[in-house]
Amino acid sequence: MVSQTRLEYGFIGYQVPVFPRASRSARVRVPIRKKSGNNEKHAFEILVSVAGDFLQEGETFNRVLKEQEDEIQSSKCNLSDKETYNEKTLSGYHQIRTVNKFSHAPDQFNLKPYSSLKGFDKLANVSGRNANHSSELGISSLISGEFSVGQFEDAGAELSIIQTVKSETLQPTGSLDALEMDCKPPHYFCSGSKTSLFKDWTTLGPSRRSDTIETVSRDDNGNYMADQRIKNLSSSRRWRVSPNLNGGASFRNDGKRRKIFHDGRTSYSRQRSKRISPLKRRDFFNQCRFSGSDRGFQLDDRFNSAADKIVQVQFGCQLLLFVYFLLFGFRDRFTIRVASSVASPHPHPGSRDRNVKLRIKSFKVPELLVEIPTTATVGSLKRSVMEAVTTVLGDGLHVGILLQGKKVRDDSKTLIQTGISRDGKHCNLGFMLEPRHAQIKLPRCLGEQGITSHATSFTLDPRTSSISLDPPVAGCINGAQRDHHLVPSLPNISASTTLPNSQSRVSVPAISGEALAVVPIHHRAGRREFVQRRIRRPFSVSEVEALVQAVEKLGTGRWRDVKLRAFDNAKHRTYVDLKDKWKTLVHTARISPQQRRGEPVPQELLDRVLAVHAYRSQQQAKQQQLKSGV
DNA sequence: TTTAGGG
DNA sequence: CCCTAAA
């Protein structure tokens, strides 16, 4: 009996990168009046797209990241485990540490090093980046970017010493325990003077907009709790702006930022970044002192709560504010608040359209629980979480709306009827991100607040069990999935906890450590809504590799077999997808490298594609000749 | 359901 | 990626 114990990992949080745009107003203007029959949906769509505005900024981010990475390498940063995890993540930590030294923020704000935070020594996390920029909805775009799942170990007092847990067998008492969280539900309130907090920063740029991200959780009595610690952390851990950022040396486009529009057009916008001086920075930090006022700045002493995995990273010169939230699920008591204030001195005087200005107040992100045997490897855990997350999110997201803490279910009501017609600040509006086909369960222990819980259940697809009997296939899948570890990702600050009462779970048997696909059960086929377009998921190089390999073996025209052979685990890849991908691969191989977009496919693979394609079409021609000849 | 192709 | 005729 080698440990058939099953351990449950509470995966109850996602990091949600927030990328407020400096150039765009965050205001949502929704006509109150119903114009057409579809208008009730209209409001929701607007909200989704606005949410997307916050979440989209991936390319810029990655470029900055590249910059940071270069700096790291040149400064011979000693990272302990470069190969297992991407360096970009690690560089984030390094940068954060650098900032702390630089700005003396720790003293000023009574910062504690990460290592003093319980639960930070071993983390499971999911980070996402916006890998493509052509999705219709920003949220989808973010989600459909590539995710990586990793586990981290903070090996010491320095933030830079972060090791990735390699593929070793999990032990029930070893690393796993570290994943458990011993704290109470997080009660924190990161609030702020929305306009003044980042005043120095925002006034540097052309935009007057500033954004404050608030994380709020309520205690059992529904009271908002405040935690200054969060504020401290978030306002101090900033990435130092790379001095050569403005020089544009590392920017591919000479200081311009490329932006790809939905239809693939490319445009350039002036980079309006401006380097922030140390003096400015100090002013900024000085401004962030806490007054202990009633704005939620009461000092909460629970410094050891594993809840404060919140890192706010700010690139001053880019005017980008990255805030990573760990959304501890904790039922529905946790919300993210994204409040953006627009300092618009000139409200349109003659605006006769009766619009509501809505402010995105909160996004609630679904939670997930993973159940995995102790004999599973870390790698399989990663893949399982990865799969589960993408399955949940890949199903599409809904935006739920909370009014006065209650969910607004009736989509057909107008905003006036619902009571959203007043200015956003008075109507206490909240927005939730929830899986599209989530099963809705009401947790036994939680019925208050009128908020329902959204969870998605997973079960094993029986067919995938056979995958382990076919090593070559499994290896192929593995190859395709290994890419997740290579994907550049956001700096990962996150937490994982055990939460036995979580509503979502993913069961994963230990079969040769391979990732096992999980598929969601659609309990309620509420298909009455319009079918949403699937999120875009660009093929990774390793997926292409797997595809090419399979087609070399099976030929074109047997896409179902190709799917079974090489993508049986990838639930989101249908045989039609594979066929389509092959089509685009052939096309890609024929066009010049300059015309190609997206992640570059190695020429070697493209050559193989052409070879196979040429061979197949030749065969086809022969067949045709035979037929016509006879 | 799966293939094959156009959109 | 979607849609769908045709097999």
TrEMBL record:
Respond yes or no to whether keyword Acetylation is given for this record. no
Residue limits of the HTH myb-type domain? Answer: 532-590
Keywords, A to Z, come to: DNA-binding, Nucleus
Q: What is its subcellular localisation?
A: Nucleus
Q: Which residues form the Myb-like domain?
A: 531-586
Name the Gene3D superfamilies for this protein. 1.10.246.220
| Nucleus listed as a keyword | yes
- Which GO molecular-function terms appear in the entry? telomeric DNA binding
* Matches recorded under InterPro entries: Homeodomain-like_sf (IPR009057), Myb_dom (IPR017930), SANT/Myb (IPR001005), TPR1-6-like_ubiquitin (IPR057625), TRP_plant (IPR031105), Ubiquitin-like_domsf (IPR029071)
Q: Which domain of life is it from?
A: Eukaryota
Major subcellular site? nucleus
Matching Pfam families: Myb_DNA-binding, Ubiquitin_TPR1
Q: Name one GO cellular component term.
A: nucleus
Indicate what this protein is called per its UniProt record.
Uncharacterized protein
Organism equals Gossypium barbadense (Sea Island cotton)
Instruction: State the taxonomy lineage.
Output: Eukaryota, Viridiplantae, Streptophyta, Embryophyta, Tracheophyta
